[in-house]
Design goal:
The radius of gyration is 32 Å and the shape is elongated. It has 20 helices and 12 strands. The N and C termini lie far apart (87 Å). By secondary structure, the chain is mainly alpha-helical. Strand 9, helix 8 and strand 10 form a beta-alpha-beta unit. It has a 3-stranded parallel β-sheet with strand order 1-2-3. Helix 1 crosses helix 10 and helix 9 packs across helix 11. It folds into 4 domains: 174 residues, Rossmann fold, CATH 3.40.50; 115 residues, Glutamyl-tRNA Synthetase, domain 3 (Alpha-Beta Complex), CATH 3.90.800; 47 residues, Helicase, Ruva Protein, domain 3 (Orthogonal Bundle), CATH 1.10.8; 89 residues, Arc Repressor Mutant, subunit A (Orthogonal Bundle), CATH 1.10.10.
């Protein structure tokens, strides 16, 4: 019988969760959802030196905002495999047990090297023109470890409490092969793999040991992670093999990078001119916060839709998908091997599509507090009509003001380019006729304004509609003219037109 699908998202609380991390979580979530499996949040906090206050809480809140909540894990409820923080799991002694098993079987060893000795090794290898100096099958023979020391010396050092790490004993020249779900068969010679530290001197496991132990204990069936872990995968294969647990090893999938818009390197939080975090993030080590997608006005559904199509395609030409639709279509076979360029303008387009799908009432309720900050309050009916009128022009709710403020405020200036080009000696007389016509409209509706204007044209001939728009709003573009005039209101339109004629005659 096939195992129940169990996947995990296992970030480190070393900073804010960026969009690449969210995409990894999303692909795990979609895969689990499609197969009726479990999605777990595990916090891999083995590197306590890099721990950042508030990062764990940020990770949890980001996942909640995105709507990709785990079935179990930190912040989402315990299952039978709790606890889900590696710092807490360390206290159970579980990692040490596995490390000792590797020691006993001869596949790992104690290394007593000091920081100074390791630096000396590095300098020695660099002087010998070694391209990538590392602690490996060759260099370890000249270091202070249980492979070079006598058994008695090792025992003595351990009894004396000498600081040590436990390293993986990687073979000198061996082909390591594994089948990545996305990339297919990958072959690496062990000479390219260093002797990874498995257990640090403080007893805390490194990622290399901890994630393997936890994946085994938590019955993880698929390990989906970023491309940056691909070079470490051969070492991980060896650990499973040396533990005699290759049959329990999750299937591996390494996701491609998210690249800058120009395709030159992966997205950097420091260089990006667009959000890279789902929520605003204040790193306690930095002075300025990073604005998030939420605070920039993006809908979580749009943000998820954007990420899903970065490095994956649905097999058709459609672009807009709900989470349920994404889960139904998702497969690792359609995940690309190469990096995916992020397009900030396309991201705005996605948000625009989701905004347009919202009801005018919903949009009006979100825009209301923004309008109030500008000093205006309108009833629900007015707000609904306003949103209906302007929403095709905007990509974000906060842009309603920029694209429609002239509905609430009379212009203080007029588009000079249009005025210079189109205003002439007859314009004053012509638009005075418009003023008289507007005064004659009893029931101020878009249709009635239109009909009265058409009747006027029968006597005056052509009247420049753009110039009329500028006289009333100050700007040359905007929504449908008569709908806009109806919303501004008869008295206000007449007042503005009178003032414009006074200023320009």
């Amino acid at each position: 019988m096939e195992k129940r699908v169990r996947v995990r998202f296992a970030p480190s609380p070393t900073g804010g969760l960026h969009m690449g991390g969210i995409r990894t979580a999303l692909f795990n979530y979609l895969f689990a959802k499609k197969h009726g499996g479990d999605f777990i949040l595990r916090i891999e906090d083995t590197d306590q030196t890099r721990f950042v206050e508030g990062a764990e809480e940020y990770i949890i809140e980001s996942l909640k905002w995105c709507g990709i909540e785990p079935n179990e894990g930190v912040g989402f409820g315990d299952g039978k495999h709790a606890p889900y923080r590696q710092s807490e799991r360390k206290n159970l002694g579980i990692y040490k047990t596995y490390a000792n098993k590797l020691i006993a079987s001869g596949f790992a060893y104690y290394a007593f090297d000091t920081t100074e000795e390791l630096e000396e090794m590095r300098k020695r290898l660099e002087a010998a023109k070694v391209v990538a100096p590392q602690y490996n099958a060759v260099s370890r023979l000249n270091m202070r470890n249980s492979l070079t020391l006598s058994e008695d010396d090792v025992k003595k050092l351990l009894e004396q409490g000498e600081k040590y790490v436990i390293r993986l004993k990687v073979p000198r020249n061996e082909e390591i092969r594994f089948n990545d779900i996305i990339r297919g068969w990958v072959t690496v010679n062990s000479a390219q793999v260093d002797d990874k530290v498995l257990l640090k001197s403080d007893g805390m496991p490194t990622y290399h040991l901890a994630h393997i132990v936890d994946d085994i204990e938590m019955e993880i069936t698929h390990a989906v992670r970023g491309e940056e872990w691909l070079p470490s995968a051969p070492a991980h294969i060896l650990i499973y093999r040396y533990l005699g647990l290759e049959d329990q090893m999750p299937k591996l999938a390494h996701l491609p990078l998210i690249l800058n818009p120009d395709g030159n390197g992966k997205i950097s939080k420091r260089e990006a001119r667009f959000p890279v975090f789902p929520l605003s993030w204040q790193d306690p080590r930095e002075a300025s916060p990073y604005i998030g997608y939420k605070e920039s006005g993006y809908y979580p559904e749009a943000f998820i839709n954007i990420l899903a199509l970065l490095g994956w395609n649905p097999g058709n030409n459609e672009e807009l998908f709900s989470v349920d639709q994404l889960a139904e279509l998702f497969s690792f076979e359609r995940v690309h091997k190469s990096g995916a360029k992020f397009d900030p303008e396309k991201a705005k387009w996605f948000n625009q599509q989701y905004l347009r799908a919202k009801s005018d009432h919903e949009l009006s309720q979100v825009f209301k507090p923004i309008l109030k900050e500008k000093g205006f309050e309108k009833d629900d009916a007015f707000m609904i009509d306003f949103c209906k009128l302007v929403k095709e022009k905007v990509q974000f709710v906060h842009e309603f003001w920029d694209h429609g403020k002239y509905i609430f405020e009379a212009p203080t200036s007029y588009d000079q380019k249009i005025m210079t080009k189109k205003w002439n000696d007859t314009s004053g007389t012509l638009f005075n006729s418009v003023l008289i016509t507007f005064n004659s409209v009893d029931t101020w509706t878009s249709q009635n304004i239109h009909d009265a204007f058409e009747d006027l044209l029968k006597t005056t001939g052509k009247i420049d509609m753009q110039l009329l728009r500028v006289l009333i709003t100050g700007v040359a573009g905007g929504p449908q003219l008569f709908d806009m005039l109806a919303l501004i209101g008869k008295n206000e339109v007449i007042k503005r037109l009178e003032l414009a004629l006074q200023k320009n005659n």
